Amino acid sequence: MIAPFQRRLLAIYIHNDRSVTSNIFCSQVLCSDVMVSTLKENCLIWPWDCTAVGQQQYVETVFGRALNDVAASAFSSLGTDDFPVLCLLSQTGPSISSLEVAGIINGSTTLDEAVGTLANAIEGYAAVKTRLMVEQARLEETRRLVSQQHMEYEEAVRRDREETDRREREAREKMQEEEMAARQEQEREDHMVSLKDGLPDEPPSDAPGVFSFSFRLPEGKRVSRRFLPTELFRTLLNYIASLGYEDSTIFVFPRRDISDLDPSKAISELGLSQREVLTLD
């Protein structure tokens, strides 16, 4: 699409050799230096010869399709002696269908009249082009705003989609973490129950050689349990694990870590007193 400021008048020259003014018009008006230079600078020129029978009617049909009814009727009323005709057309809108007649110079027109008609058409079309440029600038600005709004909308939709995806992903991850934590806690509780159920019965306090241990838990609480001297250190470790402190470090006083003692040894072989405080850390 040609920009409005680049457009020119369309000068259609219709020749008819049967007209008595053809030679005079061509030699004295159309081919004059001022007309040639002005037409060359400001117009696109399209020549047509309607000397042959039927050509004038064909031209009238073409003009009737391209111009409005009023402009087209100007050609249908031309007689043979009205030729040659230099028709000046201007595009007053964005499409080719907006062609209008800006001026008509016929065979009887003098050079001064022709130059004046051409100058008026050029001046008038300059105003039209200014209006078209303003309209085009306004249209382009509207399109730019619409395009910008569309891009902003698409960007907002994209951000919303990303935010929704992020929230859904975080919700899924949180749910998976909670499910995993719940499974791990259940497995831990099941393991503690299993260890507790596997412990031998606690011996009575008057059992021969019984060991009575007080366990100081990490949160400050204390629990106590008795063990037979023949029971293995593994049994004591399983009891601690059944309380939920499987990985705790076990200290006795004076501070000594007994966590790594041989679990297959009997409690009586560990060098512990029969009444001992075991600190879990």
How are the strands of the biggest sheet laid out side by side? Answer: 6-5-9-7-8
Annotation field: number of helices: 6
Q: Helix content range of the residues, please?
A: 40-55%
Strand content: 15-25%
Annotation, overall tally of beta strands: 9
Shape: rod-shaped
Q: Termini, distance in Å? A: 85 Å
Using only C-alpha atoms, the radius of gyration works out to 54 Å
Largest sheet: 5 strands, mixed
Note the run of SSEs as H and E: EHHEHHEEHEEHEEE
| Poorly predicted residue ranges | none
Average pLDDT, all residues: 86
Structural overview:
Helix content is 48%, strand content 19%. It has 281 residues and is α+β, with helices and mostly antiparallel strands. A five-stranded mixed sheet has the order 6-5-9-7-8, with no helix packed on it. It has a four-stranded mixed sheet with strand order 2-1-3-4, sandwiched between helices. Helix 3 (55-66) runs antiparallel to helix 4 (69-76) and helix 5 (111-197) packs across helix 6 (233-242). The chain is rod-shaped, with a radius of gyration of 54 Å. It starts with 8 loop residues before the first strand and ends with a strand.
